[in-house]
Amino acid sequence: MTRNHWKxxxxxxxxxxxxxxxxxVAYEIRQNxxxxxxxxxxxxxxxxxxVSTLMIENPDLRAAQRAYCxxxxxxxxxxxxxxxxxxxxRVQQNRFYQVQLGILDESEVLAIGxxxxxxxxxxxxxxxxxxxxxxxxxxVEYIEAEILPLQRDTC
Length: 155
Hints:
Layout: H1 3-57, H2 59-69, H3 75-100, H4 106-114, H5 122-131, H6 137-147
């Protein structure tokens, strides 16, 4: 073989190696994306589970909800509800930003607790009215379109 033939053969081997390397990198990126997405779904689901567990295990929260519905909640009970709903809003905001980043799909996020019972409680509308101006406009629009309509007028 002449020197030019060796040069051409080495270039072809280099190009083939580059294509194989790029295919492997694309595969690894896809695997990493799937792993991140799975972990994010798990974390978002876990947040909803933790709030549900909190409601089950905390009789003071349940009593505060009952007192609110009976229209005789104390200031301490109202503060407890405000703190609970502040936490719920952080969970919802996390869901919202995961959708904005393109990591999760909105239907998935809503299905794994985004439409949970806490957002249906009568207190939610009152809480939301008092805090909505502290959130970004796109998040406010999301809550008013997807979450606030779930709220019930009665306990």
